[in-house]
Amino acid sequence: MRILLVEDDVMIGEAVSLALKDAAYAVDWVKDGATADTVLAHGEHQAVLLDLGLPKQDGLEVLHRLRQSGNAIPAIIITARDGIADRIKGLDLGADDYLVKPFDIHELLARLRAIVRRQGGQAASVLSNGQVSLDPATREAQCGETLVMLSAREFSLLQALLLRPGTILTRADLEERIYGWNEEVESNAVDFLIHSVRKKLGAAAIKNVRGAGWMVEKAR
Predict the structure, then answer these.
(1) What is the pTM of this model?
(2) CA–CA separation, 168 vs 216, rounded Å?
(3) Smallest Cα–Cα separation from 43: which of 217, 177, 213, 135?
(4) Which of 62, 86, 104, 108 has the greatest number of CB atoms lying within 10 Å of its CB?
C-alpha cells in the first residue's frame, strides 16, 4: 500500500518512513500542509498519516479540505496535541484514528493495518478471498496447504490484489501501490513479482487477464 506521510519533524519523519518501508509500505513524505493538500488532490495514496502542527497550513485544515472534497482516504492523525478538544475536532473532521506523540511504532502499524482492512471492506485481521490468505502482521501467505513468507514487495503486490478481489489491477495500478516517488521502477518489475508470488503459492493464486492486468478471484 502507498502511504502519504505529512510530518515536518525530520527525526520523526525519518523514523516513521523507515518503519513503514520495513513493514512493506511504499511511503511518500511531505513536510508542510500546503504540499500535502496538493498531493492528496491527485489521489495517488491509499492512506495518510497527518501531523497537525504543520508549516503553511495546519493539519486540521488539510483534513477539512480533504473531506469537503469528498476524498474518503483513510487518515490517521499523529500529533503532540493531546487535549480532548483536539482529538474530538480531528475525529469530527473525518480522521479515522488519532495517535498522540510519542507513540510506539508497532501501535501505529497495527492501527494502519486496521484502517486498511476497513478500507477493503474486511473486518478480519487476515485478508482472504477464500482461496488465498495473507496476514499483514507477519507477511505470511497461504494457498491451500502451502504457507510461505513473502518479501516486502511480494506482500505489497498481493495485498493490493486481495483488498480488491475480483477487480483487475493494471501494471500502473500495481506500480502505484508498491513504489514511492523516489523509487526506480524497472519495466518488468511487476511481472517479476507476479512470477515470484505464483512460484511460491501456485499459478492459480493470481489470475492474468490478458491485455488488461491481474486479479485474485472474488470470494464465492
Answers:
(1) 0.72
(2) 8
(3) 177
(4) 62
